[in-house]
Each structure stands twice: as C-alpha cells, then as structure tokens.
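Please fill in the sequence for the structure shown.

STRUCTURE ENCODING:
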C-alpha cells in the first residue's frame, strides 16, 4: 500500500496519510500482542510461566511493537514533518534537482535513521509473530477418527 500511495499521491497528501495510518497501525499491533498474551492457551498469561519460549517470543514481539508505538513511530513522524517544513522554507520540492542544503541533508538523515529503525522493528515483530504461530500450530493434536 505504501509504495502505491507514494507513487500515486502528491507528497503533501502522502505525508498526511502516513501521519494518520501508522500511529493507528502501531496501536493495533500493540493491542493484538496484548490480546495474544491474554488468550494464551490454556489459561491465559498464567500459562506463559510454563512456556518460556512462548513467553520470550510474545514479550519480544510486544517490545518491538511498543518501541514503534512510543519511540520510533513518533520520531519518524516528527522527522517527516520537520523535513516537509524545511522544504517549504527552502521553496524546493523533495525531488528538486541540485544539491540540497546542509539543513535538508540533516533532516533527511534523521528521518532515514528513524524510518529504518521503525521498518526493522516492524519486520522483527512480524517474524516473531510468525514464529509464535508456528510454535502454537505445532502443538495442535489432530483428531483421528
């Protein structure tokens, strides 16, 4: 979705969309990790005491989601806004030819760092979620008739 929107929307509309979508995404992601822990079979969170591997996996996923929700998501959003304001001050578009100013180089660097951290944390959380799903599925006992 992000790539299509980036290509199809004007930059100001794309920035506005990103500011609205990703905070919601990170809240939902964090809530689903909490829901996963609360519904851990057979007795919810109390059962995690006896399953250290699952507790670590769910904890890791939750930590990645919370880092995105509380630190890297807001930092990325703020850096994106500051970069846009710098473009306005300079009267240049994001893809204008020529050398960018020192301020713009710094704004882009800050944005790139925080955005990369957010992407990588999200990928780690997704990987841990898949791992947890595989662990959970491996415990299923098919009923033989």
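FILLED IN BY: designer on duty
SEQUENCE:
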């Amino acid at each position: 979705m992000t790539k299509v929107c980036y290509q199809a929307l004007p930059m100001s509309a794309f920035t506005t969309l990103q500011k609205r979508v990703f905070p919601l995404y990170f809240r939902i992601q964090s809530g689903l990790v909490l829901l996963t822990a609360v519904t851990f079979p057979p007795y919810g969170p109390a059962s995690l005491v006896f399953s250290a591997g699952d507790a670590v996996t769910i904890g890791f996923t939750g930590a990645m989601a919370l880092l995105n929700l509380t630190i890297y998501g807001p930092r990325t959003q703020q850096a994106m806004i500051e970069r846009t304001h710098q473009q306005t001050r300079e009267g240049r578009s994001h893809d204008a030819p020529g050398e960018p100013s020192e301020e713009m180089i710094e704004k882009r660097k800050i944005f790139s760092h925080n955005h990369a951290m957010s992407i990588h944390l999200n990928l780690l959380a997704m990987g841990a979620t898949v791992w947890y799903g595989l662990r959970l599925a491996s415990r299923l006992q098919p009923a033989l008739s």
